[in-house]
Design a protein that fits this description.
This protein is α/β, with parallel strands linked by helices and 237 residues long. Helix content is 43%, strand content 21%. It has a single domain, classed as Rossmann fold, CATH 3.40.50.150. The protein has helices at 12-34, 38-51, 86-95, 134-144, 162-184, 187-199, 204-212; strands at 57-61, 78-83, 102-106, 119-125, 145-156, 216-223, 228-234. Strands 3-2-1-4-5-7-6 form a 7-stranded mixed beta sheet, sandwiched between helices. The protein is globular. The structure holds S-adenosylmethionine. S-adenosylmethionine is lined by residues 13, 16-17, 20, 31, 62-64, 67-68, 83-85, 88, 108-110, 125-127, 130-131.
């Protein structure tokens, strides 16, 4: 298991929560910078894939500062964004103050308080790779989704084209940790984010994990030369 600080005894969950609390005030700014503003388009695709099914109640898991949840601000839909890092949610709450249909709640994605079959759609942006127990987190998402409804996951991937891959490693291993140190004042956090992206299952490997957990009709969209993927999967009826 990849944790931000291997030398510490704390669980991955505690370390991840503390890490996101620590970088929360700079998170949005660094996100934009590191993704060269492409994150906005990726979230828009998640939005389109979600709203096309006309959901009434959406859960955005590992919602962080709320940028996916807030995409639904002008829709006739109830959105609950959940995260276990309270300082990320403080920022999400600030952004959603005048948006009545989007609310945020402190929850552990791997052990949520919602009833079975509650939501018409579930979104997760750059969250699943931070779960302590990936299978448990995905099982929980399946539990709270209504049968026949869609899970949409946006997650990092490693490009397969050799030249792109070379550029990708150069960027994630050298530039991102330096930016993390300079701007977020937390080099270790951004080193973790790069290393975890490198080792996290992606593409067909991630599809197999979803299939084994019982999701159906899994589709993958490879975006921005393969540096991120969007997976959609249906909870069977
Ligand atoms: C990289 S941020 C993504 C935030 C947002 N979804 C976005 O697209 O910008 C990952 C988020 O996952 C949250 N997270 C990680 N493990 C979690 C868990 N077990 N339960 C709830 N949130 C979790 C972190 O606190 C963090 O806010």
């Amino acid at each position: 298991m990849i944790k931000p600080d291997k030398s510490k005894q704390d669980s991955k969950k505690i370390q991840i929560r503390d890490m996101f609390n620590d970088i929360s005030s700079r998170y949005d700014q660094i996100n934009k910078m590191m993704t060269l503003n492409m994150d906005k388009n990726w979230r828009k695709i998640v939005y389109n894939l979600t709203i096309e099914d006309k959901p009434k109640k959406i859960i955005d898991i590992a919602s962080g500062t709320g940028d996916i949840a807030l995409c639904f601000a002008n829709d006739n839909v109830e959105v609950v964004g959940i995260d276990n890092a309270s300082m990320m949610l403080d920022l999400a709450n600030e952004k959603s103050m005048k948006i009545p249909n989007v609310k945020f709640q402190l929850e552990d994605a791997e052990n949520m308080s919602f009833e079975n079959n509650t939501f018409d759609a579930a979104t997760v942006g750059f969250g699943v790779r931070n779960f302590e127990d990936l299978n448990q987190g995905l099982r929980e998402i399946k539990r709270v989704l209504k049968p026949g409804k869609k899970l949409i996951i946006l997650e990092t991937a490693v490009p397969s084209f050799l030249i792109v891959r070379f550029g990708y490693f150069l960027y994630t291993k050298l530039i991102i940790p330096v930016l993390g140190k300079m701007i977020a004042k937390n080099q270790q956090a951004y080193q973790y984010l790069s290393t975890s992206a490198e080792h996290f299952p992606h593409g067909i490997e991630f599809q197999i994990i979803l299939e084994k957990l019982g999701f159906k009709d899994i589709k993958i969209k490879y975006l921005s030369l393969g540096i991120v993927n969007i997976y959609t999967a249906i909870k069977p009826k």
